[in-house]
Amino acid sequence: MKADYKNWMPKGMVASFTGGAAGVWAAALGAHILMPEGTVKRVMTGLSATAGIVLSGVSGWSYLMYRAFDYNGKRQMSRQIITGIAGYVDLPEDGNCLDVGCGSGALAIAIAKRNPKAHVTGIDRWGKEYASFNKELCESNARAEGVSNILFQQGDATHLDFPDETFDAVASNYVYHNIPSKDRQAILLETLRTLKKGGTFAIHDIFSVGKYGDMHAFVKKLKEMGYEKVDLIDTTNGKWIRKSEAGWMGLSGSALLTGRK
């Protein structure tokens, strides 16, 4: 039995873009062949061809994304990011860690494997955007990896069902930017609320100004609140993602927020 962490670019999405492009090109060809000569034919053919070019570009982009994120492919960006984040999480014996937005279980499992005497809880709402990700998949992947010190459950990142200071560590990867919100810094604070005094955090996301506002001011705010060793580490400088990749993949602004409460 082998773990299946799926792909951050779902195969169904790639297929949809490809099928859409093929359909539009077929419509353009049909208009060119079947319609009588005239202005309407030129307009319809032109519009269909333009749409075909756009959709072909999107299809090619999604395929390249799929290849880059493939856990078993050549680039394995997803695996490198997951392993990298897990490397920042050190738990005490019998300690507890929360993974917010666990998806297919990859990060939670990586942390659990690295800290076999601790306990990891992965939560996710498992929405329709990633229909292939679910609790059963996470549990299957944990069994495939031989990990038993882990629990998966439904949860909402904006209103975590845990008391203050529950966990010795909290972690997350590419989650909060997907949540519609005018204040994603507030979602970060909701996660950090569950962290014990002395606990650590490792949160990786697209911390661009457009999505989060001024994150350097947020780092300063955390320090003023008493958090220690707070750092915002750029991960697009070759750490896990190359600068050139970040641009065309839409991952510019990716960084790791770390520190201790």
Kindly describe this structure:
With 261 residues, the chain is an alpha/beta fold. The chain is built from 9 helices and 7 strands; from the N terminus they run H-H-H-E-H-E-H-E-E-H-E-H-H-E-H-E. It is elongated, with a radius of gyration of 22 Å. Helix 6 (184-193) links the parallel strand 4 and strand 5. It has 2 domains: 11-69; 77-260, Vaccinia Virus protein VP39 (Rossmann fold, 3-Layer(aba) Sandwich). The model has no long low-confidence stretch (mean pLDDT 92). It has helices spanning 11-34, 39-69, 77-86, 106-114, 135-144, 184-193, 209-212, 215-224, 243-249; strands at 96-100, 119-124, 150-154, 167-173, 195-206, 228-234, 254-260. The chain has a 7-stranded mixed beta sheet, with helices on both faces. Helix 1 (11-34) runs antiparallel to helix 2 and helix 3 (77-86) crosses helix 4 (106-114).
Which oligomerization state do the chains in this entry correspond to?
single chain
Structural class: alpha/beta
Q: Largest beta sheet, briefly?
A: 7 strands, mixed
End-to-end span in angstroms? 39 Å
The CATH top-level class label of the largest domain: Alpha Beta
The overall pLDDT, averaged over residues, is 92
Taking strands numbered 1, 2, ... along the chain, how are they ordered across the largest sheet?
3-2-1-4-5-7-6
CATH superfamily name of the largest domain?
Vaccinia Virus protein VP39
